[in-house]
Specification:
Structural class of chain A: alpha+beta
Oligomer: homodimer
Number of helices of chain A: 14
Number of strands of chain A: 20
Largest interface: A-B, 42 and 42 residues
Distance between the termini of chain A: 18 Å
Strand content of chain A: 15-25%
Chain lengths: 444, 444
C-alpha cells in the first residue's frame, strides 16, 4: 500500500498509526451538523504526521507527491466544517507542534501555524498587544486553523472579518509537489489561503495584525425582548467612540442552557453579551439603558474561568448541545441596510424551531450582523429547507451542512482566486481531494 | 460704566484693557467668511480677563452677573465661527492660561480647558496614548475651544465626531449667576456644551477619551482624477483593518497652493492625503494602487515641520488664502448612501467656482464624507446661494457664513437640549448674548 511506502520514507518525522489517534485527529466539530455527521462518518487518515518545522513539512509534501497520497492539514480541530477530515484517507498533517512566535513588532507578529491563539495573546499582552480577531474556541484553536477555516469572530465588531484587507498580512505556504516550493503570499494574495481549509497550500507561517490591549470587561444584560437586545446591541455596534470586542444579543430560550449564567437570565428574557474596554464602560452603559446588568467581570481567560465569549459565536450552539444533543445550527449574514427588520422577520418565522443570536460585525466597512442560529433538529431535509427560507428572505447563508468549500463558504469566502492558485500549488490534486469540489487536477 | 465697576472688583484676577489686546482677543478666524467679516467687524470686548483657575472663573462669573456684563469665553481663537467675538462687548474670558492636565489613565484624561492640544499629545505620547480627535489647528488650538466650537477633525475617520457617544466623557461648567454653581456633566449630558460656543456654561474642565498611539506616517499620492482619488479614499475609509487617522482627497487646483507640497502635484491632478499607522502601510498601499506616492514622511509635529494634516480640513482654505485672499469656503456633509455620486454631482456643478476636498469620517457609525470646499468669492449673496444649491441636491450644509449657533450648526449640532440647559446656567442671558439667538433670558 502506498501509505506504507510513504511511512518508510518519513525518517525521523514524528508520525502515528495508532487507531485512537487516527480517529481523533481525523475529526473536528463537524458533528454540530447532523448532515455532516452522516456524510463524514468513518472518514479517516491512514497516518497522522506531526512535523516539527517547515523542513519536515516539505519532506512530507514531497513524499505525498511521490507516492500520490492525499494530505489534509489540521490545527486544533475546533472547526465545524470538517476541514480536518480527510475525505480520501492518506496523511493528516497535524501542525499543532509548530508553535513558534517569531517576530513581534508594533501592530504585527509572525508565527507558525500551530501556535494556540490564547497562548499568543498571553505572550503578547505584557507588551500591550493582542490578536485582533479570535474564534470562540480561542483556548484550543490554532492560528493556522483559524485562518484556514474561520471567517471572523470576537473582534470582528471592530475590525471586520479575516477577509477584510489587513486582517491577514501574509502567509507562507508549502506546495504539494515532488519538489515542493515555498511561496510567500503578502496582502491580498494571502487571502488565497483564507477559509480554503488547507486545500490551497500547507501554511507554515502567518503574519497577523495586532491590536492594542484594553482592560476588557465581560458584561451581560437582560432585556424584556430580543428586539430590544438587538436594538441596544446595534447602538453599541454603531458607536465608533466605544472600544469593544464583542456585541451579541441572544434570544430566549438559549440563555436557559448557559450553565452558571443561566440563573441570571429570567424566563422569557433575552441577553445582550459584550466585551467592552473599561475606559468605554460609562458610554456603553448609557447606550444600553433599557437593559439590566446581570453579570459583570474582569476579562479572565485562566483555566478555571469561563470568558464570556464562550457563550457567543458557535459556542452558543455548544452550550445548548451540552444538555440537548438534538439541535443543530445555521449560518447567516443579515443585510446591513434593513438589519433589525430582517432579524425580526426571520425570528418570527419559525415558531420555536430556530433560536436566534446575533454577532454584530463590520463587513466591507459597514455594521451588520452575522448569526449562527440554533436549530431544533428534525430531519436533514428540513435543515436544507431552512437554508432556503433564509435565502428567500434576502438573508445570505453560508450553509454549514455541506462539506465542500464552494457550497459552504458563500459570503464568508475570500475574494481571491483560490481555484487558480490551487492549480499552482497542488497540481496533483492531493490536498484533501474532494474538499474543493470544482478543482480538476492538472496532472494525474 | 458697568465694566469699570466690574474691573474694580476683580482683585488679583489678571486682566487687560490694552487696545491691541482687546482687538486680538476679540477675534478668531471668522474672516474666512466674507459675510462674517462684515457682520462681526468692530465687535470687541471691554476687558480681557485671564483666569488662573476655577476660583478665578467663579469670581468673574459672579461679577458679570452682579454687574449685568456679558461674558464670552475663548480658547486659542482658531475657530471660524466667531465664537470668540463678543457680540455685545463686556468681558472676554481668555481661558488659555488654565492648562493643567490632571488625571491621565488608560483611555482617558482630565484637563483644564486651556490646555493646547499638541502639548497634551506631547505629554501623553511617551505613555502610549494620544487624543482621539483634533482640528487641523492642533498646534495652536486649546481643548476647550475645540470642544466648544469644533465638530470633529483628524481622527474622525476612525472615531467619528465629537457628537458621537464616548468622544466627550465629561465636562465641568461654571454657571453665570450671582452665586455661580459648578456642574459636572457626564456622558450624554456633556454634549450640552459641544459646539455651543461657550453659551451654555463656562467650561473649566474636560474629560476626554484617549486612543493608542501608532507610529503614524504622513503620505500623499496623486491621481489622474478627483473621482479616482475619492474612490481610493473611500476604499481606505471602509477598510476596518487599516489603522488610520486622516483620509482626504483634494481636487485640482487646490494642490497648486500647497507650498512645498505644490511642486509634487502635477498640473490637473488630484491628491489623496492620509495618515496611516506604519503597521497598516502595506495594506493601505494595496488599496490605493491607482495613485502615485509623491510624499511620505514620518509624522512630525515639531516647530520646523509641517504635519500633513495642516493641508486638510479648514487648513486647506488657509493654504489657499495665503496667496489668494479672494476665496471663502463652504461646509457640508455628503449623504452616506450615495456618497461618491453626490460628490461627483456637486463637483460638476460649479465650473471652477468651488474646489472640492473631502474628509472621510464616520457619522453615526457609517462611513461618509464631510467637506469644506474652497469657494471663489464673488458676492455675499452668491455664498448663500451656493449653500442652497447644495441643500437642493440633498447635501447637508452647516452654513459657515452666519454667526448664530442655530443657523450655523445643523448636522454638526450635538443631540442635546442646549437651549434648555442654557436657561439653567445662564438665567440672565449674559453668555455672549445673541450667539444663541433663540434664547430668551429667564430674568432681566
Amino acid at each position: 500500500m502506498k501509505v506504507h511506502g510513504l511511512i518508510e520514507d518519513l525518517g525521523d518525522v514524528p508520525f502515528s498509526v495508532e487507531p485512537s489517534m487516527l480517529r481523533r485527529k481525523s475529526r473536528d466539530y463537524f458533528w454540530y451538523s447532523q448532515a455532516l455527521a452522516e456524510d463524514l462518518a468513518g472518514k479517516q487518515a491512514d497516518v497522522i504526521v506531526t512535523p516539527r518545522d517547515e523542513a519536515d513539512v516539505i519532506r512530507v509534501a514531497a513524499l505525498c507527491a511521490r507516492w500520490r497520497v492525499p494530505l489534509t492539514p489540521r490545527g486544533g480541530g475546533t472547526g465545524n466544517y470538517g476541514q480536518a477530515v480527510p475525505l480520501h484517507g492518506g496523511v493528516v498533517l497535524d501542525l499543532s507542534e509548530m508553535t513558534a512566535i517569531a517576530d513581534v513588532r508594533p501592530g504585527a507578529l509572525r508565527c507558525a501555524p500551530g501556535a494556540k491563539m490564547h497562548l499568543i495573546d498571553a505572550e503578547l499582552r505584557p507588551g500591550g498587544q493582542e490578536l485582533r480577531l479570535h474564534p470562540s474556541t480561542k483556548r484550543t484553536a490554532t492560528i493556522g486553523g483559524f485562518v484556514a477555516g474561520g471567517s471572523g469572530g470576537v473582534g470582528s465588531v471592530t475590525y471586520g472579518g479575516l477577509r477584510e484587507p489587513g486582517n491577514i498580512l501574509a502567509a507562507r505556504v508549502v506546495t504539494l509537489e515532488e519538489t515542493p516550493r515555498v511561496i510567500e503570499l503578502r496582502g491580498d494574495a494571502a487571502q488565497k489561503i483564507n477559509r480554503a481549509y488547507g486545500t490551497t497550500g500547507i501554511v507554515t507561517a502567518l503574519e497577523m495584525p495586532l491590536a492594542p490591549v484594553w482592560d476588557w470587561v465581560d458584561i451581560a444584560l437582560v432585556f424584556d425582548t430580543f428586539a430590544e437586545a438587538c436594538a441596544a446591541g446595534l447602538a453599541v455596534a454603531l458607536a465608533d467612540g466605544v472600544v469593544k470586542k464583542l456585541v451579541t444579543p441572544i434570544s430566549w430560550p438559549i440563555p436557559r442552557y448557559f450553565g452558571p449564567l443561566a440563573a441570571l437570565a429570567p424566563e422569557g428574557k433575552s441577553l445582550l453579551i459584550a466585551m467592552v474596554a473599561r475606559a468605554s464602560m460609562e458610554t456603553f452603559l448609557s447606550l444600553v439603558r433599557g437593559g439590566e446588568i446581570v453579570h459583570e467581570a474582569d476579562f479572565d481567560e485562566s483555566p478555571a474561568a469561563t470568558p464570556i465569549y464562550e457563550y457567543t459565536w458557535n459556542h452558543t450552539t455548544l452550550q445548548v448541545l451540552k444538555s440537548d444533543r438534538n439541535v443543530s445550527y445555521q449560518q447567516c449574514l443579515f443585510p446591513h441596510d434593513r438589519l433589525l427588520e430582517s432579524v425580526a422577520e426571520m425570528d418570527a418565522l419559525f415558531d420555536g424551531e430556530v433560536w436566534h443570536h446575533l454577532e454584530f460585525i463590520r463587513f466591507a466597512g459597514r455594521v451588520t450582523a452575522s448569526a449562527l442560529p440554533v436549530v431544533r433538529f428534525t430531519t436533514r431535509a428540513r435543515l436544507f429547507e431552512i437554508v432556503s427560507i433564509y435565502e428567500k428572505h434576502g438573508v445570505f447563508v453560508a450553509n454549514p451542512h455541506v462539506f465542500t468549500l464552494e457550497d459552504g463558504s458563500r459570503h464568508k469566502r475570500a475574494e481571491a482566486d483560490q481555484l487558480g492558485f490551487k492549480a499552482e500549488v497542488d497540481p496533483l490534486g492531493l490536498l484533501n481531494p474532494g474538499k474543493m469540489r470544482t478543482y480538476e487536477p492538472m496532472r494525474a
